[in-house]
Amino acid sequence: MTTRYRVEYALKTHRRDQLIEWIKGLLAVPFVLHSQPTGVFETRTSTVAQQAEEAHRRYAEILKDVEIMIDDHIEHQKSKQEAQSKLKLLVPSVGTFFTKLPLEQAFKEQDMRRFISSRRFVPPSFNDIRLILNTAQIMGLLASGPLDLATFDGDVTLYDDGQSLEPTNPVVSKIIYLMSKNTKIGIVTAAGYDEAERYYGRLHGLLEAVKNSDVLSEGQRKNLVVMGGESNFLFEYDPSSPWLLRYLSRRTWILPEMLRWTEQAIKELLDSAEWALEECKTNLKLPGKIIRKTRAVGIVPEVAGYRFPRESLEETVLVVQKKLEMSAAGKSIPFCAFNGGNDVFVDIGDKSWGVLVCQRYFGANEEGGSIRGDRTLHVGDQFLSTGSNDFKARVVGTTAWIASPSETVELLGELSTLISSK
Ligand code: IMP
Ligand code: MG
């Protein structure tokens, strides 16, 4: 393996999303051919508008072609031959598509907001495409039925990193609106505690709003759970509990597949993870302390306010991930090693299990005993293939990749407009 290959491919792909990069590459061609940087000297507004129109038409055409290719991939999925779709050949990392993605329509919507076609120096970017995919996802979801379950990551998705959900956060009323339309809500966070009080601290704005809402029925109020530690601690909303949340003992909700996560296997995995973190702490001279919990182990700054270098956090995740993948413990039960922004944690299980538990918890009376993936939306900020915890949720349902709490509010705004227009 050449050094260049290692740097370009083996070490960098985890920081790129291949589908987004591929679409970005496709849109770069009409950008180069049709955007007119010389247009800044152009004084006739009609010419400028014409140029934007032409770019818009070409971008829309390409996104329509991608949409058709995704439809073809979905057809292949139905006959379990997705490995042979054209899309899979072009973008080997693509996973399951739970719904169609109306990319052309979503592009038109986003172009009205972001003026992508009017730009002459900045081509369609990673963020443009990420937002087009999000819009397409909620359009595709609602076109085929109701949204039965929405799950949300906590940090960066609902509130800023390390903060909590205050009553003034505009996301609160958006979530209440979804609940009033009978969508079930799961907060699926890595933050892992077994006491309700800790989650009340992080989520009190939402919990109090659910309690005091005059638009929710008693039944709708119950449609809220918190899944902590990715897939380890489940709480249901309960107005009679002191912190409005009731801890549900694991044996009441654990999935049959999780029974083999024995205490012994968990201990071995956390021991291996702890050694790997210790080694990184020594090698990278990280001024951090290691925290061992019942279902997680992590490294956090020793002194409040200190920020680890981004590169050290990434290196730590990659080292720990690799070591665990190679260990017997890491092969026996699922785990999630991720960069939390200023810490690195290894949790037992991952968000695919967390969302799956929510699907089964709320879907007990549904056909198959579970809410389906194409009726589920997980919203999160961590979707890179390594070192990101929301990524795992892609296996069990549709997802939206946001970059800040305000983007979550915007996304839910789009969602409620679509729901109310039905
Ligand atoms: P999330 O974005 O809601 O998934 O929360 C991730 C953050 O929760 C991490 O970056 C940590 O700062 C914090 N955290 C607290 N306890 C745990 C734990 O047991 N496992 C993982 N993360 C934890
Ligand atoms: Mg997050």
UniProtKB/TrEMBL annotation:
Protein name from the UniProt record: IMP-specific 5'-nucleotidase 1
Superkingdom of the source species: Eukaryota
Organismal lineage: Eukaryota, Fungi, Dikarya, Ascomycota, Pezizomycotina
SUPFAM superfamilies: HAD-like
Function in brief: IMP-specific 5'-nucleotidase involved in IMP (inositol monophosphate) degradation.
Family of this protein: Belongs to the ISN1 family.
InterPro entries cross-referenced by the UniProt entry: HAD-like_sf, ISN1
UniProt entry keywords in alphabetical sequence: ATP-binding, Hydrolase, Magnesium, Metal-binding, Nucleotide metabolism, Nucleotide-binding
PANTHER family found in the cross-reference section: IMP-SPECIFIC 5'-NUCLEOTIDASE 1 (PTHR28213)
Signal peptide: none
Presence of the UniProt keyword Protein biosynthesis in the record: no
Gene Ontology molecular function: 5'-nucleotidase activity; ATP binding; magnesium ion binding
Essential cofactor(s): Mg(2+)
Record EC number: 3.1.3.-
